[in-house]
Amino acid sequence: MLLPTMWLIPLNFTVFMVFIYVYCGFRKQPRIRDMIRKGGVTLEALSQPCCIFYIWILLVCLTSDWVYSLESVLGFFDPAISVLQSQRVEAPRPPQGLCDVMRDRVCRKKFCEGGNCYEEEVGNCRNQYPDSCETLGVPAAMRWLVVLSPPCVVLAMLISLYHTKRHMMYGRPWSETEMDFLHDYSIQICALAPVYGLFSLLSVVHMVEILEGRTDSMLWKSNPACDKLLQMNGRDNISAECWESFIDRGERWYNLNFLVADLYEARVLYCFASLCMEYIELQRRKRGVFSHSCPKCRSKCPSCEGENTVVTHLLLQPLKKMTLLGVTCFVWTNFFRSLLMLGCEALRENFPDYWDATQTGLTKLGDIDGVVEGFVLCVSSIAIWNLITFESHLHDALSGFSPFLKFLSAKIIVSLAFLQEIALICIGRLVHSAQWLQPQHMLAYASLMSVEILLVAVLQYYAWRPQALESIAEFRHQKSLLLGCPVDGEVTFCIARDGQKLQLAVAETVKDTPDGQKVFWESASVTLLANDAA
Hints:
3-stranded antiparallel beta sheet
């Protein structure tokens, strides 16, 4: 599912995820499912949504720009970003026109506000950079981050791919049954590292292209008029307007990459919340204060034909709905925000005249970006606080699910982004250097995220272990069977007196011990059966 214009990958990804969502619903139809099964094991495996997802990731990696070429050996022989001193001396000088435009942008950003500029201060700022190309330098420490970004992202993708494969073994065609809800959502959560890593790496690419002035990249070629001017006059005779457009486009695409990555992270938080709700529902049917008089009913019991008035049901249902409501609003807010920003970018690139009219209308409405940012911040804070409150108050009931480690693996990217943004701002204020300006700040942020994503993939590998989830899934399957029908691995006792019946079901599991295999009782449920006297 690739759009003709691969230059705007965030837009392609958003459309692709909508396609996957529709495809999953379409694939669940019995007729379609049977057709896929008749096609053989290979077709059934490749038709899995997660397989389609990773194939798309591979195609994006093969058709996109990278930080450095393969011939440079992980960037060590790329003069522009090499960490080797011998290679760094031979680094080519960026185009003078790009250097002048960047110096002017830096100075105007410092001393211009609300459309008014202090020209004297702007002139003094320009004098601070007699060599305007100093504003495009990459500090030596940052070169290490840039060089390490691609291998870290690739390793994170490989770990997540292997982790996904292990989850897939518990569903068709490797198993007799379809993949359980728990494994399905876990696979979506494990895909956070590849998604965030890919878009962080693309942001690194955009900033490196700007700092090097690469005119052979998609970032440059997306403007055909300037590309034609390049072919006619050479890169040293390109107009300032083209370089200005080149920098603007790179910074916009940089922001769009992280915008869509945050959208997928919102989806991951929703998956985590849904899994917590499902685990609590299982505990409600299992034991203790969450015990349930009927292991199969939710709102109405088909056996007793009456409303379920169990206290835990009445209290937990609104609690679960309120928790999921906050996370759902967070997902949809990010989704519509992404559509708005991506739509504006597509309109700007393909229909400039319509974009001018749209921009005029949006300007009359006020600071739309600020309003949307504030709304997203509010909704995300409520969603995350709801999850923290839910987990802290039901910590004992969720102990078997290890919610803290799982929540950390889903939420740690937001925390890392927030903390490192503050750290980079402090570094920028302490280090007064021509090589630490806004472009370098953005490059450092994207590079750090690309390196840190490897740690996120490792954390998710240990947090979402397939075997632990499968034991929960098996218990879930047992409790979904019809009432009163004994199943394998379950001992059932019936007590009757004067026409009244009570059923006690004990779930068994077989475990290997040093003394051989032994049978252990995991849990028990008590069910009041129909009263014959009634």
